[in-house]
Design brief:
The complex is a heterodimer of chains A (about 160) and B (about 140). With about 160 residues, chain A is mainly beta. Chain A has helices at about 10-20, 30-35, and strands at about 5, 90-100, 110-125, 130-140, 145-155. Chain A has one domain (about 5-155): Roll (Thiol Ester Dehydrase, Chain A). In chain A, about 10% of the residues lie in helices and about 35% in strands. Chain A has a five-stranded antiparallel β-sheet, with no helix packed on it. In chain A, a hairpin with a 5-residue loop joins β4 and β5 (about 145-155). Chain A is globular and about 50 Å long. The model of chain A is unreliable at about 80-90 (pLDDT under 50). By secondary structure, chain B is of the alpha+beta class. Chain B folds into two domains: about 5-20 and about 70-140, Hotdog Thioesterase (Thiol Ester Dehydrase, Chain A); about 25-55, no CATH class. Chain B contains three helices and five strands; from the N terminus they run βαααββββ. Chain B has helices at about 25-35, 45-50, 60-75, and strands at about 15-20, 80-85, 95-110, 110-120, 130-140. In chain B, strands 1-3-4-5-2 form a five-stranded antiparallel β-sheet, covered by helices on one side. Chain B starts with 12 loop residues before the first strand and ends with a strand. Classes of the chains: A mainly beta (about 160), B alpha+beta (about 140).
């Protein structure tokens, strides 16, 4: 299920910029931003991914009343789960691409449509059989305009990547 | 703080130290801001004993975000039209990352000027962790 409503908020943009160590005032200082070419606060280029916060079914967020696969008393909170992946491998992020038709700003309310792209396999010495799958996500604003097109590639590994 | 087609040349590069001695707390901070709470990035016990890795490692998207700063500091705010990367090696707590962007093309389309860039982020062992490309709208 895709995120139906992703409200872009100034506080969220500020926290996101802090987390990537980017102190650029265009991401948090309204007065500064007003005097720039852009004229207002914008979001950093990788911020669209934070839509996960607003995806009601997002798998990688603990949900109230549901088991969580991270550690508690034991190394994992679930006994048998597909989320753990075969052979201790599991899902990793292989590629991410963004096209910016315009940059996001506080006050935008986005809706997402997600469609699967291609899938392919590759053999790897470091992680066994790799299964790649592509996802294309379109972000539209409150006026229905396409603002961001994102293409992500995930990979499931047969075993943990050797380092 | 924007680029002008008349003042740049294909092959121009810009490098920056992106993060020094990456802290586990920054991984926690990124998990909270992005909403990606995959325990692989914050839960050492799970990551070692269940997932089979030596310990927690950075979200690929954190490294992409850190790398994005190199680009936006160069091309200017709101100027990127495209940014894409491949995650080629994992990033670990304690890593020091440096990035280099290079101008690969300068072009004009419908009266607007654009620059194409390649970007690579490497760790303290000179091993690439991210390779990518980007485009930005620039001034004439």
């Amino acid at each position: 299920m895709a995120t139906e409503r992703f409200p872009v908020e100034a506080g969220h943009i500020m926290m996101f910029a802090r987390s990537i160590g980017d102190g650029n005032p265009i991401y948090h200082d309204e007065d500064y931003a007003a005097g720039t070419e852009v004229g207002h606060i914008i979001a950093p280029p990788t911020f669209p991914q934070a839509q996960a916060q607003f995806d009601p079914t997002y798998r990688l967020r603990p949900k109230i009343g549901e088991p969580w696969f991270g550690s508690g008393a034991e190394p994992t909170g679930v006994t048998a789960s597909s989320e753990v992946g075969s052979g201790g491998g599991g899902g990793l992020h292989a590629e991410q691409h963004f096209e910016y038709h315009r940059h996001l700003r506080p006050g935008d309310v986005l809706s997402l449509t997600v469609r699967p792209g291609e899938t392919w396999e590759k053999q790897s010495k470091r992680a066994g059989t790799l299964t790649f799958s592509e996802t294309i996500t379109e972000y539209r604003d409150q006026d229905g305009e396409l603002v961001i097109t994102a293409r992500g590639v995930g990979v499931r590994t047969e075993k943990p990547v050797e380092n | 703080m924007t680029l002008s087609a008349s003042q740049i040349t294909v092959g121009d590069t810009r490098s920056a130290l992106l993060v020094e001695d990456l802290k586990r707390t920054q991984l926690v901070q990124y998990a909270g801001a992005s909403g990606d709470y995959n325990p692989l990035h914050t839960d050492d016990l799970y990551t070692r004993e269940v997932a089979g890795y030596p310990g927690v490692f950075a979200h690929g998207m954190l490294t992409m975000g850190i790398t994005g700063t190199l680009l936006t500091d160069w091309v200017g705010d709101g100027r990127l039209t495209r940014f894409g990367v491949r995650f080629v090696n994992q990033v670990w707590p304690g890593d020091t990352l440096s990035g280099t962007a290079e101008i690969t093309a300068i072009r004009e389309e419908n009266g607007e000027h654009f620059v194409d860039l390649s970007v690579v982020t490497t760790n303290q062992h000179d091993v690439p962790v991210i390779t990518g490309t980007a485009s930005a709208r620039i001034d004439a």
